[in-house]
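Q: Second attempt. The first request was missing the SMILES, so the protein and zinc ion are both included now.
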Amino acid sequence: MQTPKKQIIIFFTFLLIIQSSLLKALFDNLHKIEEYQKIETEYPSYVDQNHLGLCLKASIHLEKGTVVATANFEKTDKNYIADHPSEEYRYIALMNIDDNGNPICGKVRGKWAFCNHSCEPNCDITDKWEIVTNRKIDKDEELTTSYDALVYNYEWPAHWNFECKCLAEKCKKQINKYRLDIIYPIKKR
Ligand SMILES: [Zn+2]
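A: Got both inputs this time. The predicted holo structure:
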């Protein structure tokens, strides 16, 4: 049996390990944010952290119709998998549908990748692949789009499903199909 002194040492060592890994995660995130804030500074938006992780916020008060990011895609064979631990599967968007009805996906780069989903989004996506505000937005407010807006006539695959934690009053919690009240224009590329 361990003596109380040994138990105390183990307990504090355990605490130290937890604390240092938490600090490391915090430091890594801060470092990442600092790096991400250097990208695409021409748009009035910046990468920050919300209650869930990284997000995109308004850097000034924005009027309706302001472009806050544009897409910078690189074609990929990978398909989006919600909540996948690797960014390789999370920062992916459906770019188009080929003639056989198969999805054409793009790896999302730049600020676009940090614009989170909301069930009551304050931004829309245009046919020029811009993220544009759909109402007035306060400085430092998070910018969001709808990941389940109807874009293409394409069946929603099960691996796109995710549990939403967007804090919107009308949050649907389970995102598992296209919504029909938000339709983004078919994108041209
Ligand atoms: Zn939601």
